[in-house]
Description:
The protein contains 13 helices and 6 strands.
Amino acid sequence: MDEWWKEACQPLDAVMRERALARQDQLTKPRGALGRLEALAVQLAALQGCERPQVERVHVSVFAGDHGVVEEGVSAFPQAVTGQMLRNFVGGGAALAVLARRLGSALEVIDLGTVEPLHLAGVSHLRLGPGTANFTREAAMSDQQLQQALGAGRDTARRAAAGAAQLFIGGEMGIGNTTCASALAAALLPHSPLTLVGPGTGLDGDGVRRKLAAVQTALRLHADHCAGPLETLRRLGGFEVAALAGAYLGCAQQGIPVLVDGFICSAAALCAVRLNPTCRPWLLFAHRSAEPGHLAVLQALEAEPLLDLGLRLGEGSGAALAVPLLQQACALHNEMATFAEAAVAEGAV
């Protein structure tokens, strides 16, 4: 087995971090007056290896796959929606497509395996299988499928690097994938599924109870085999979740900062960090979603999200919404005058 994800991720540039900190101290404002925007600019300087970072070239990819656990009645929507949304992504009508367009970023759409085979122009169809298996009865993926899904994410990171991306956003699409994320979080964290399972795409009370039962059944079935993150991901994950984890690891190895979206993407980030903790500094977190399990995952990752807007759409949409905040942090850092340049007495503001 090629365990490429264990390779060390890029170190942060301590010299550029110090230079960025020094610049912040010279700008015409009281020290710390711009709050987290100052810290973001300094963090990006260390990640990008330059005193004046930029977030203009954003690589946006969305990974899709179906989930066998949908057989348990865990979603308010039929699985056909996964394929229909792929059409919507390439047609430009999905929320992430709109936001990527506003950012001036192309949207890469990668189909890892829907129940029904699709042939859509503008979509990369990798076809690892007709969705994952129902993890309440067996492992979600084979060893080969897991390797292929992780590798698909790494390949995306390599394409982002080839395009000189300054930031990576990964999105997801797959009916049933909040169930998958809840199961992964429950297996990897000391939390009861009772506190992690939520309504997802809009389940009623009976639907949430079915979803909780499916997660509990899966945890009992796989408990003796989930000692490590890789096997946990294979048994309880999804094609798109594994690909996201691979993309986050690949970006950290390539030296590309990542902006992580909501609950499902954060569950993938948790898997990535458990597989290789050296990727953690490369992960920024866009928002706290309305899904109840997201807070537990963020806390486990010691992550402080940028936004809290009650979002629960997924797709990578929350991350795309947060990009202008990073851009403004960089603009303030790069373009504000220093005390010397503005002929303002230091300490006067």
